[in-house]
Structure formats: structure tokens, C-alpha cells
């Protein structure tokens, strides 16, 4: 009997498969399709202090082997997430959930993380410093190691639960940013968020996305995510959650061999809402095929 369990920052997961923030709503939407308790956990939609309508339409451009999004952190705001979304989730999910938090200032992160930290179902805070769609020109707070460090230190002062920092790949030196997170007291790192990209419509001769630039994800970015997971897990001691283009049980194992403790699945959920369930179902047979008895034993196994 294959053992799929992994431990993420002190909390045991039944398996390492985690739907990524922004591709799984607040979970209960998918519970209409299948029992979401099969998941290791999931990361809920990026939540901000105030409600946000998001960016103008169109916000999506389809690409070969991926998708560009510029949603702009559409969400009902942290008060409503606590009062309404988490109540709905509690009825269909009986595991700890990852609270993905975005902000525009240190104070925003402190406020929202502090509030979500007090929610019993929140197991981890995923501090998202990597959304490319809200600061103009595809920049995010996470490109500045000092700023990231300031946010992490401030959040750590007001929360008790593990803080995982979600990083952007749109930097020259991902290792420097990851080390800044570890030095600031982060309990884990998630990488990668989307790569900035754009498309132009030949008929209109204008950018497809109203915001012009968006975040590119999907199978095409998998090797980039692999490289960054490899480099960062060489450089830090805190656990790394791999993310980027994962769409099969083989991809999950490959990312764990590079050093990931758990693996987030994003764009694949947009193609097939059952993607995470299917990957979890495929894992035991894939483990047998490659002679793996305990999935946690492959973490960093390729080093
Ligand atoms: C968005 O809402 O624009 C995407 C969120 C993200 O990339 O962090």
C-alpha cells in the first residue's frame, strides 16, 4: 500500500496535491463536482483587505500550452471571506485550508493575515507577494527582497500559524528573494506564481487582455518552475511548495524529486475541474511504476 502522506510546516497532508490559489475559488464551488476531502488541502482565492472587482475585461488570453490571466485579485474582501466563504467551506471540507492573502501595503497584509489566522479552519497563511496584475507593468511587491522581508517580519509578529510566501518568477535572482523570506522568519515558500506575458489579437491589432500584460501559467512553465524549485531548495532549509504547470502524477513526483515538499496544481484545474482528483487517483499506480513506497522519501531525491 503506497504511502502518500507528507508534512507541510508541521501539518500532515494525506497527499501532496494542492489546488493553487485562483484556480479553485473558495473550494465549495468544486465540492459540487467531487468530494474535495480527497485533496491534501487547497489554497483559496487571493484575498485582500477590501473587496475588489478586479481588472477590466477581457482578462484571459489562451496560448499554446498555457493561459494568460489578468484577474486583478477579484475577491469579496477578508471580512466577507470569514463571514460567508469559510462558513460554506466548513460544510464540505474537513481539513485545514491555505489562506492566500494579497495586499498593497505592509498594513494590508498584517490586517488580513491577522484576521485569517484566528479562523480555526485556516492551517497556513500563504502570503502572496507575487500577483503581476495589480501594480501596473507586471511588477509585484515580491521583486524587492527588502519589501518582502518587511512584509514577512510584520506578518510573523501577528500570527501563530505557519507563513508560506508565494514568490514571483519575474526576478533575476529567485534564490536571493527566497533567502530573504527565510531570514525574515517565513516557515515555507511557494514557487512559482505566473510569468508575465502578453498576446496581440491580429484582427484588432490590440493586446488581447485589457490590462495588456498578464500572468502566464500552464504546462509550458513547468521546466521554469522545476529549475526554481531546484535552486531554492538547495539554498534554504524551510519547505518549498512547488507550483507551475503541474498537470499529472508524474509532474508531482518530478517536482518532489527536485525538492518540493508538496505541489500546487493551477492552470490544469481550468482545463479539467477534476484534474487534482485525477492526479491523486493516479499517484499510487505511478509510484508503483517507479518503485516508490513512501512519497515523502522522494523529496529532494534527485539532488
Ligand atoms: C490575479 O488575481 O490577477 C492573479 C493572482 C496572482 O497571480 O497572484
Describe it for me?
The chain is of the alpha/beta class and 303 residues long. The chain has one domain (6-298): TIM Barrel (Alpha-Beta Barrel). The chain has nine helices and 15 strands. The protein has helices at 28-31, 78-90, 106-117, 145-158, 174-184, 222-235, 249-257, 268-271, 275-289, and strands spanning 6-8, 11-13, 17-19, 60-63, 66-69, 97-101, 122-128, 163-166, 188-191, 195-197, 200-201, 206-207, 214-217, 240-243, 262-265. The strands form four sheets. Strands 3-15-14-9-8-7-6 form a seven-stranded parallel β-sheet, with helices on one face. Helix 4 (145-158) packs parallel to helix 5. Bound molecules: succinic acid. Succinic acid binds at residues 22, 46, 69-73, 128, 130-131, 133, 193-194, 215.
Distance between the termini: 26 Å
Bound molecules: succinic acid
Fourth CATH level, the homologous superfamily: Aldolase class I
Radius of gyration: 18 Å
The overall number of domains is 1
Q: Report the order of strands and helices.
A: EEEHEEHEHEHEHEEEEEHEHEHH
Task: Note the beta-strand portion.
Answer: 15-25%
Which class in CATH terms? Alpha Beta
| DSSP E strands, number | 15
Mean pLDDT: 97
Return residue spans where pLDDT drops below 50 for at least 5 consecutive residues: none
Helix content: 25-40%
Structural class: alpha/beta
Q: Largest beta sheet: what is the strand line-up?
A: 3-15-14-9-8-7-6
Shape: globular
